[in-house]
Fold this protein.
Amino acid sequence: MPKLTRRSLLHASCLLLLQPLSAGGKTNKTMKNGIALDVVLYSFFNRPIFDIHLNGTNIGVAGAYGGTSIVTEVSIPYGKQYLSWSLDSPEGMAGNGDSVAMKNIILIQPDQIPKNTLYMGVYLYPDNTAEVRFSQHIPGNSKRGEAIFNQAERLTRLPAQRGGNSPGLERRRD
């Protein structure tokens, strides 16, 4: 029987600790007709929206110019995607409670999704269009969304610079 030494115990301990890492981390789940990914939502509306559905799956709510948390393992079929949401806002604002469907067409095919993709960013714009982006890590803001946010931020600062009251936009800074 081999003699147990500190070195052999340390070696065995290291192997046991590293086993979960080598056993595989998080991976996407590719299916015959689609893929399951974690979905991160970004909204660039100047009002809250709710009942946001991707292909019939509720993916959350969003405040004005805000993102929401991640919805894990959303089944995304290949082909045409369907996005809809409902408008919210202060009482009396036009369109309150109206259901809106995405105007543009988003088609997702297997060859569009890079290997090791774990996340899909869903970006909703005030002209009722949307886009999606795939990423191995939590996706960041889109260029179009950043431009919308920057424009809105400038507009809300103008009244304050003239001495008026403006609530301003709160921006998540990472």
Notes: The radius of gyration is 22 Å. The first strand starts at residue 29 and ends at 31.
